[in-house]
């Protein structure tokens, strides 16, 4: 084989190797895109001339969008200078184990069921079903404890948001009881 042929064959391999070594740039692109989206949306927020004080509705979104763009730039600079994220080093993590799609699908199903039922049956019931489904998906099989804890957490969450924080969540049929 000639030197010219070897060079032509090695170039795609080198290009692929460079992208593998700098794969964190994908996270940078995602952060940058999110930051730009937040900034564009924030700058489109209408401000009312009757606004009180120097801080308006644009302040926090512009700050968050700017921080996302800044972090994306700093992370890209670090990656291009040779910085690498640490590999997973948990004691009980088996990096060679395949993804447990059953668990992922059960968790997604519990979340989607919550989203579908929240307006119909209210936050406490739909969230209790979601919490119970998540516990089941993650391996808990106690038929008495799991639904009781799920119901307690969902009702406490509803009370905290609805009563303490003033964020109205749909109560559903339990509205008169709670």
From TrEMBL:
Q: Which species expresses this protein natively?
A: Actinokineospora bangkokensis
Q: Which Pfam families match?
A: TctB
The residues covered by the DUF1468 domain are 28-170
What is the official name of this protein in its record?
DUF1468 domain-containing protein
Transmembrane stretches, start-end: 25-47, 59-80, 101-117
- InterPro entries cross-referenced by the UniProt entry: DUF1468 (IPR009936)
Give the UniProt keywords, A-Z. Membrane, Transmembrane, Transmembrane helix
Is the keyword Transmembrane helix assigned to this protein? yes
